[in-house]
Amino acid sequence: MGVTGIDHIQLAIPVGGELIARQFYGAVLGLTEIPKPANLAKRGGCWFQGESVTIHLGVEADFRPQRKAHPGLLVSNLEDLCAILEAAGSPVVTDEPLEGYVRAYTEDPFGNRIELMEPTAHNSIEG
Fold this sequence. Notes:
The chain contains three helices and eight strands; from the N terminus they run βαβαβββαβββ. The longest helix has 11 residues, at 18-28. Helix content is 20%, strand content 30%. It starts with 8 loop residues before the first strand and ends in an 8-residue tail after the last strand. The protein has 127 residues and is of the alpha/beta class.
């Protein structure tokens, strides 16, 4: 009994934001869009998946970006990803290291905060 993991995270996007979301989460972050179940697709939004993360983007009529609450995404080659984000017009803010990680923050095109965390050599993703 008890919590054993995270199945997915959900972030809100404004009505009609799917095309912009696909560009950012798909083309910029390199996640793969996965189909929403038919009964949920009518609500709008889109879902993305990476090696070990699933992100659901749900449409919210009274959308307000999350500036403090955020997902912490594990990444490889943070430096290159930050360069890709900046080239795409996304802000990148580096932060002081957290034990075992180098990290930075960005935001999606809607203003939702996203933390990017790259494990250091002594704290690899494999454990």
